[in-house]
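Operator note (shift B, R.M.): manual run for Glycosyl hydrolases related to GH101 family, GHL1-GHL3 requested after the automated queue skipped it. Running by hand, logging everything below so the morning shift can see what happened. Input copied straight from the record, untouched. If output looks odd, do not overwrite the archive copy; leave it for review.
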Amino acid sequence: MKSFVRQFSAVLVCSLVLVSCFNRNSPVKGASPRPSGNYSFIERPFTVDPETLLITYRQETVSAAADRRVVSSYASSGNTESWKYPEESVSVAVEHFPDYTDIEFTYYGGGEGRFTFPRLAGSSYTLPFGQGKYIPAGDADFIDFFTRYMQDLDPLQSFSMGFFAVSQPERTFLFIIKNNFNNEIRFGASPDLTASFTHTFPDINTDKRFGFRMYALDHDPVTAAKKYREYIQEQDLFVSLRDKSKTNRNIAKLPGAVHIYLFDETVIDPDDIGWQKFRNSLGTPAVTYLAEFSRGLEDGGADFRRVLAAAENQDYIDQYQRRVITGAVSAMLVRDDFYDPGIFTVHTDKTEAYLRRDLRTLGRLERIDFNKEILYANLDVFARPPAGWAYNRGTGIVDELYASGIDRAMILFNSWEQGYIQPEAVRKAADCGYLIGAYDSYHSIHEPGTEAWITARFNNPDLYESAAIEDRDGVKIPGFQGVGRKVNPVFAMDEVRTRLKTITASGLPYNAWFVDCDATGEVYDDYSPYHPTTKEKDLEARLYRMDYIAKTYSMVVGSEGGNDFAAPVIAFAHGIDLMSFSWMDQDMKANRESPYYLGRYYSQTGGAPEKMIKPVPVKPFFRKIFLDQAYNLPLYNLVYNDSVVTSYHWDWATMKIEEETENRMAYEFLYNTAPMFHLDRDFFGENKDLIVNHSRNWSEFARKAAYAEMTDFEILSPDRLIQQTFYGSGLRVVANFSDYDYFDTKSGKTIPKHSYHVYY
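Run finished. Output pasted below as returned.
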């Protein structure tokens, strides 16, 4: 694995592509696709001025000049040049090839060093920001965005791939980074958007090199993406979905699978109780015990007791009271200390079998099942046995999906504990041929005994002190949302093994797994004197654990982000097509009075949180930056369409944004992006026809597109809102994001506004 990740490190690339022909007033390309792998480039070497590091290509500036430096030890032989900057302890080596120039910098001084190259300015940028962005350098909104929100950008974390590039009037200059760690891009405005790339040589890291391949290309961003794809394949780092499925048969279920999050940990639903019977049971030992036991609940216990007291004076139990009662009972039934032998005296064959095994040895699934069975045996108020409880919140949704004709889906639970609560839903999903999995994370650890969420509870509590990442000042880095600490992944592998072994020992047929954070590029140099670790080793450990889960358990593994250092390991990526950006704006993030507020991480009915399903508008500024299709480019899928299935960050599912669902659905065909839905009983019931029809149509298309290379992307209108993509040898998609109908001359079809057409 060590050499495997070192190859990753050698290949993450950043390209800066200034694409002058793709402004709103530029001529429009024709409609015919290029054959895959046949892309033009200009075979002339770059000229480098050693004193200023000004780089030119046929009189066009590639990288702007810096202040003059003292140069020593200059040498030139054949296609190579080399020299030193003695005042900065940096040596430079340049080698010219027919189609590119390689430049490498080596730091030979003591302590920590820094060096800036290249310095970029041009008419527009094409950046692998998410799927990809076309960025006019003179656009005031993009200047504001990148200088305010993306200052000192780490390309490993903020770019999905590695290409960043400059277009001068005649050509685009592509840079491929040879060391992906400890880099930052600083944006400026003078007055147009500028960018400079700085590499830090940390004293903790023995690798003191960084550099680039530099290419001169035509202005088409497809050319840059395909050059990068060629490079990845040259380095033997491209792994197709077909090849991944050869070692993991479950990956064959992914192409065409709609991505569904089920957020419902309800153990018992109001429909599972006969409420007149419950009203008559008030005051019985079992209900009295529930009232007393509820005092140990963090949430809902006091409301539960108030409702019981009120019900004593009523001859009915209303809907609100029913939700309070079932919510509190659900919370009690997942507690390991729920059983009291003095109260629960009636037993069945099943409860007696559990008791013969010693309750302390039961796993979580068995313990919850025992709690349900013992309550059912001792409280005669239930409409059905425990196996059918909360059916409409889990198993019933799976049944409906399958019955509606959706035969490929990936269902992810908010937590693996949800599978313990609704094991029938897991089994049903597997029986339907679906991928079924759960959210997992090893990003943060909380102080033992105070864990705010299950993923931050580690089996080895000593890791809170012994494995916390420290910055260079010896301060332990806080965990997510400032809670707990971030864990050095090198020392978390035992937790991965223990956790997955425990989960799979339950017998639940999980075949997919979502590992949060590991593909985002959020990695650290750990300066702890007890376990110093470089960013490279940090990343290596993250890739190893995802690879371990996939190979050991035949799971289809995905992660947040999906940056391409992880592409050989992961099968799906959540965040490439629309990244998390609510953190940039207080109204979206925290202002509950704002119409732009995403919503609370709470559901009144116990289903999907309003943050996930409440439709919200997006402010015009952020709509332009993230949603305006005139600025989007499918760079990631031009490289990885047949390797990684992409979708959105879960904050921004297909139907989350007001007045954007039609565009999202058209985008999902154009880019072969997996639709994402957060479902619970109510949301699915209200939107079933739309969800089912779109999912079935997209699935048919995606089964063909997922195994094919995206061979081309074209802009078909001056306003850039009519676009087309090509897959393989004959699959074509035209999408119309405009407010007018578009006549496709190639097919003779009219494509209505905010819609698409697929040509098979």
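Quick read of the result: The chain has four domains: 2-237, 239-266+390-440+571-712, 270-389, 441-509+526-554. The chain is about 30% helix and 20% strand.
Leaving this for review. - R.M.
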